[in-house]
Give the backbone structure.
Amino acid sequence: MRATVLHSPGDIRLDELPDPDLVDDTDAIVRVVASCVCGSDLWPYRGVNAGSKPTQIGHEFVGVVERVGSTVSDIAVGDFVIAPFLYSDNTCALCVKGVHSSCVNGGGYDGCQCELVRVPWADGTLVKVPGNVDEAMIPHLLTLSDVFPTGHHAAVSAGVTAGSTVAVVGDGAVGLSAVLAAKRLGAGTVVAMSRHEPRQEVARSFGADHVVATRGREGAGEVKEILGGIGADAVLECVGSADSMKQAFQTVRPGGTVGYVGIPHDVKLNLPVMFFTNSNLHGGVAPVRAYLDELLPDVLDGTIAPGAVFDQTLPLDRVADGYRSMDERTAIKTLLRP
């Protein structure tokens, strides 16, 4: 099969690799219909936490089941499925508590920007999409593999409910998804912090009531002015950098909560300030499988259309161009078709 491999920082190639095979009776082999490049893929692409040898990459995909192990009973050959970016058995003590991302039998795939993927614990991991899947629905379904549930996790972690005031730090695909997720949960006012006009447009289409382009204390001051002078009830941190976390805490009101889903890099917390302002921090890796039963119906009936985060679609043999576009911020998120 053809598969995307990171050979060294900045060196993305489409290599020929052996087709994956069933290893355990609980496995499935899925033919990829669509995959995509994630912002977190850019960290090793840029040389941060990069491996020392060529590594298959990618973790978001939807596809059609080609083979199943002998004990797989809920998923069948021919099913169109959404694959959460981490596999899980959906039965362990942590899955039962909704923390599928920490499943005792869970883990990550070998890589998903490819043609075929082996999925362990297929019954617990894969979510079947009912009926015939229209081509136009595929981008929206693909977001449920990671990016939209991750934005949703930021909003849930920050305690967004009906009437909440919300600020979103980060205007990548996760940040934009967080805008949509906050509105879906009933947020009263959502402020998107973005300096890029195309991303501002997507944020507004997702329900952002205001856009603030400035940063630092000036940007936090603008948000506070919009939100009654005290800051946001919930700030959704969707980047993972030291600057973005600092921005989040400058923007949240005393007693408010920062919901963070950006993978932290060089982040330091000012615990005394958090203590004296009663500011909270909650979040982490999104337990995507825990959210899909709730989110999928809203995508299928058109209540939300999260696939608007994809502004570039490329064939798999141009995956290097997709990485380059996202690295240079000329694309928000690149969808790949085999």
